[in-house]
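Milestone 3.1: sequence recovery, worked example.
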């Protein structure tokens, strides 16, 4: 079990959204590096970073901040948000990002994912599947496709991936507890390692997710629960993180 504290960047600030809606952004810090260092000090082994501007079609935003996080922290970061080509993947891996997350591009161009895995290896690439009622959402969750999450997961397994991040949109940022049924189904159907995202509101949610480690739920991304002081990230890491 690994716990990944999340930093979502919008216009150079650390924010959280509700269900992916840009206008719902609540600002928590204007110093992302200092914010990230609190997670590092708490014992985090990797930080989940999302360039929300990139997800909303502004990929040039936040580049300096992300590069600073990758170079100044003593732990790795994974990065998602608007990364849609092999060249963009290489851009970030060459700047110190340890793992690049592909989202919408995996739906539209699965061959690109396969090429990226062949070039950079399966540990450097992870696909993020964002789902609403079992269907894949793209473009910052603005569009819900007809593609089932489990079908995309199988396709990504066949492309050579070893890990997925699965987000349930209905719970993300809502502090209502995670919905794990579809994540468990995908883990069992594909054999891939799954990082659960969305809905974590308290340490008991982390405890619940940790119970499914044997079937492939290897970790959880936690954001708003930390920011709103509902979950002590240091306590959660000490109790449940085993890597």
């Amino acid at each position: 079990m690994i716990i990944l504290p999340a930093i979502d960047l919008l216009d150079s600030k650390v924010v959280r959204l509700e269900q992916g809606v840009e206008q719902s952004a609540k600002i928590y810090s204007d110093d992302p590096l200092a914010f990230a260092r609190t997670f590092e000090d708490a014992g985090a082994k990797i930080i989940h970073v999302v360039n929300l501007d990139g997800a909303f079609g502004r990929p040039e935003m936040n580049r300096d901040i992300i590069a600073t996080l990758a170079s100044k922290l003593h732990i790795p970061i994974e990065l998602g948000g608007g990364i849609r080509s092999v060249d963009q993947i290489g851009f970030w891996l060459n700047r110190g990002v340890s793992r690049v997350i592909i989202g919408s591009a995996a739906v539209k161009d699965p061959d690109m994912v396969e090429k990226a895995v062949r070039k950079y290896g399966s540990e450097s690439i992870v696909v993020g599947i964002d789902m609403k009622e079992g269907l894949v959402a793209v473009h910052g969750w603005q569009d819900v496709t007809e593609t089932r999450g489990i079908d995309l997961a199988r396709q990504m397994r066949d492309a050579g991936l070893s890990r997925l991040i699965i987000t349930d949109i209905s719970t993300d940022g809502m502090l209502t507890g995670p919905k794990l049924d579809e994540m468990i189904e995908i883990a069992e159907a594909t054999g891939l390692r799954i990082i659960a995202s969305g809905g974590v509101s308290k340490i008991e949610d982390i405890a619940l997710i940790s119970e499914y480690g044997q079937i492939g739920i290897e970790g959880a991304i936690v954001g708003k629960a930390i920011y709103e002081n509902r979950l002590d990230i240091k306590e959660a890491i000490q109790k449940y993180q085993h890597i």
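The domain at 2-240 is CATH 3.20.20.70 (TIM Barrel). The chain is about 35% helix and 30% strand.
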